Amino acid sequence: MSKWDHRYSEDRSNLAYRRFPALIEGFGQILAGSSLLLRPGGVLAVTTRPFRVKGELVDLPGEVLAAAENAGLVLQARLAALLCGIKDGQLVARASFFQILENPTQPRRRTARLRERPRRPPGLPAGRLGPRRRRLDMRKRGRCRYPSRPHGGHRQRRGQAVMRIAFYGRIDDWHGAEMRIMKQRELCQRVLNPCEQITTVFFDVGESDLLPEGFALGRDGSMTDLLREARDPFRRFDLVIARSSDRLEHRGVHYSTVLLRLTTAGVPVRVARRLSFA
Fold first, then answer.
1. Residues 42 and 114 in one domain
2. Among candidates 158, 231, 223, which has minimal Cα distance to 194?
3. For the domain that residue 169 is a member of, what is the CATH number?
4. Is the pTM higher than 0.70?
5. First-to-last CA distance in the chain?
6. Does 149 reside within a domain?
């Protein structure tokens, strides 16, 4: 394995060598400078994670979010970015290498270089090794504008470009199906930006792709249709939203596989309600 540019510089003014308050102050300056490059409504994504100092958990994501708000950015979404690989078409979660180093209670081979690192004092809470980072999507204040696309892209509404959203809902049985699907859609609608609009509706009830005769809600298709259209360059949506990640599961297919298929096709996914990963 060949590596390059994987070490911090020897310049002691580098953020990597600063104490935590100075680190946050410096990163806030980076965010403020980056926000100047964003158009109104533009999104800045930052991946971060909590870390431990002498066994004490430090909420770095919270500090980054506070620095972003001071820089004039608004939180749009807080997501879990998995540290994972792909094996046989499935996502395989992997724990953070740095969290393994910070948690010496986990067995590992220690090279000569690692043996030089002091171990964390015993008796302090180790916590859990999370195979994920926090991804913070922050939006610049102002009117949202999305670029037009050669095949039509976003529709125009009152002179403002509209991001086309595909809603996907799923329930397990037919009891109160119409009302439950509508509640999922209303929850998703509440988290959309003013320049985002649900233009297509996909949902499933139970394991069947078919709806009974006389079903009140209209739809553009099932999960099968959603995945098929996502691969079409002339698809009718730019982003998929669901109530929560578990709603994306269908017919025994794990939601991580659905996420992989959609993102591979170039379609981002947003959830209105985050699940607990504890």
1. yes
2. 158
3. 3.40.50.1390
4. no
5. 34
6. no
User: How does the average pLDDT of the chain come out, rounded?
Assistant: 76
- pLDDT of 140-158, one tens digit each? 776 555 444 434 444 444 4
Mean pLDDT by 10 residues, the chain (278 residues): 74 82 89 84 84 78 88 80 76 61 49 49 46 77 51 45 85 86 92 85 83 78 92 91 88 83 87 58
The answer to whether residue 239 sits within a structural domain is yes
213 within domain boundaries:
yes
CB 243 within 8 A of CB 169: yes
| Overall number of domains in the chain | 2
Is 46 part of a structural domain of the chain?
Answer: yes
**Does 267 lie in the same domain as 176?**
yes
Of the candidates 197, 145, 205, the one whose C-alpha atom is nearest the C-alpha of residue 166 is: 197
Q: What is the pLDDT of residues 200-225, one digit of tens each?
A: 999 998 877 677 777 778 889 999 99
Q: Is 182 found in the same domain as 136?
A: no
- Classified as helix, coil or strand, 264 is helix
Show the domain range for 68: 15-140
Find the helix or strand (DSSP H, E) in which 57 lies. Answer: strand 56-58
Backbone angles phi, psi at 156, to 5 degrees: -100, 140
| Helices and strands (DSSP H and E) totals, the chain | 7, 12
Q: Which residues in 109-140 are b (16+ Cβ under 10 Å) and which e? A: eeeeeeeeeeebeeeeebeeebbbbbbbbbbb
Residues in the chain: 278
Q: 10 vs 98, 110, 271, CA distance in Å?
A: 21, 25, 42
Task: Identify the sign of the CA torsion 30, 32, 35, 37.
Answer: negative
Q: Please report which helix (H) or strand (E) contains residue 45, including its range.
A: strand 43-48
